[in-house]
Every structure is written in structure tokens, then in C-alpha cells.
Amino acid sequence: MRALKKNNRRPEIPRKTVYRLSTYLRCLARLREKKIQTVSSEALAKVAGVKPTQLRKDLAYFGTFGTRGLGYDVAELSRSIADELGTSRLQPVILVGVGNLGMALLQYRGFEQEGFEILAAFDAEPNRRRDKEITHPIYGMERLPAFVQENGVKMAILTVPAEAAQEVANDLVECGIVGILNFSPIVLHVPEEVMVNNVNLAIELENLSYFIQE
User: Label partner for 50 (CA 20 to 30 A): which of 71, 142, 148, 183?
Assistant: First the structure.
């Protein structure tokens, strides 16, 4: 397999392509679990639910992959995609808002397997008694700026109530956070250089509801 050809400048690619790269990475992980060493673009595209032309177009943003007639080296392609997504090493993350949802996310053990490490959580009431025991430290919001700077954190998970979300997002941006996974049910207004991914379960259910109507 020919190595990924990197440019000095990171290419601008569509957000949907980035989502598909994450899908490809998980498909490749399943192939590795089955001890499959090479895969054709047609086979990988099929398990990922896309057309082979789309797969090749997505990978072409980052360089030239594969060997004609042999396909892709599964392990090498996995490493290359993980490098591009920034998950080949553990990415530090913080969580803000330790309510029921925040607690559930802190207890989830799959983040590290995917390349992310939640270092700590922050809450307006850090010492409030909580029903479930967690191993992550919970700090007051006043410690947020120093912690982010000292640990080089760039990403945060936001699970605060809607009425507090924008103010907390402003604090995160001011601290240097440039990526926010937003579980709060409002649209956040952030600077152009800050990326926000919204997770709204109600909207997802509404979409499903539309498609199951007879």
C-alpha cells in the first residue's frame, strides 16, 4: 500500500466526509477483529453503506491509498484514518454538567477505546451528592480555565440545562476549547473557528417518527 501523501496545509473537506471516515474506521476495526488483512474498495464500501466511488473520493482528500488489484491494507488504512481524525493517541476531553446524562457519559467505558480520555468533569455544584459513584474528579466551574490550559484540552462535552448552555459555552471558548459536543437542546452561538456537534435525541426520534408513518 502506498503511504498517505500529506500536504503542508491540512485540506478543507466536507463535514459529511469526516463522518464517513469515522464509519470507515469502525468497519476496518471489525475487519481487523476477523483477522482480515486486505480489503477491496468495493467490499469496504459495501460494509460502510456507501458507493465505491464515494469511498475513493473521500480517501483521495488525504492522499493515495491502496494497490491496484490488491486493495487496501486494513491495518495501514486504519492507522492513516486514525491519524487524520486525531485519534491515534488519546485526546483529552472534559465534561461540563454532571446531571443524569453527564453521569451516564462519565460511566461509559468505550471512550478510551475510540481514542478519547475524559480527564475530569465540571459542575456548578461539584460537591452535591450523586446516586452513582464515578472515578472521575468533579471540580467547580472556577477551576475550568486553569485545568484546560494546564492539560492542553481542546474538546468538551456539554450536558448542562438549556438555560445555562450558552453561558457555559462562552466560558469554554474563552478557556481555549475549540470543539464542543453539545447535548443541550439549544443552538449555541460560537466563533467561526469553534466546531459544535449537536446531539439532540428528540430530533432524532422525530426523524424516525416521520419515516415510520404509514
Answer: 183
The predicted-structure confidence for 68-120, as pLDDT tens digits, reads as follows: 667 889 999 998 888 888 877 789 999 999 999 999 999 988 888 788 999 99
Alpha-carbon span 187 to 196, nearest angstrom:
9
Q: What is the pLDDT of residues 140-151, one digit of tens each?
A: 999 999 999 999
Contact between 160 and 183 (Cβ < 8 Å): no
Using CB atoms within 10 Å of the CB of residue 15, give its burial: 0 to 12 exposed, 13 to 18 middle, 19+ buried.
exposed
Give the 3-state secondary structure percentages of the chain, helix then strand then coil, rounded to 5: 45, 15, 40
**In whole angstroms, what is the distance from residue 82 CA to residue 21 CA?**
9
Dihedral sign of CA atoms 202, 205, 211, 214 in order: negative
**Residue 192 to residue 45: CA distance in whole angstroms:** 33
